[in-house]
User: What shape does this take?
Amino acid sequence: MDYFNKMKGTTKSPPAVGVSEIVWSWVGSFIGIAAVAIINYNIVDKTDLVLIIGSFGASAVLIYGAIRSPLAQPRNLIGGHVISAVIGVTTYKLLPAYLMLAAPIAVATSIAAMHATKTLHPPGGATALIAVIGSQKIHNLGYFYVLIPGAVGPVIMLAVALLVNNIPKNRRYPEFWL
Assistant: This one.
């Protein structure tokens, strides 16, 4: 019975945020994703590279909408994506014929590695998964996936987060670097 009682939760729903917080979260995420998308579709798309991946949407939620969360800090943003990209690519290279096994190994191992390195960033799990289940274009990148999109995309989004999140007086980003 104690097992099921844990599922009830212990606190109430978090308080609502103000309109200003909503607006600044929207502005930051719009500019951050737009910056990555513009570079992707105007420059990178002409190559065999990919700069924008789905996990960046979840990163945007954290670094523009939950800026005080430990999971949203620069160390976690960059480290989480890079570590997870390495693990995702490695897992795919080791198990290309066994995606049903490679997918959970990549995600679980990236979570363990992010915990071990104090870089836990939930979208990193998606970055590892994309390296395994992504398109042939993603697979063709090999370890270059770690750099583009794995490192460059989050660095662009971080630059926007530093600029936008510090405009209003009541917002400060980051809470910590290392």
In short: The chain has one domain: 20-164. The chain has a mean pLDDT of 96. DSSP finds nine helices and no strands in the chain. Residues 136 and 142 are 10 Å apart (CA to CA).
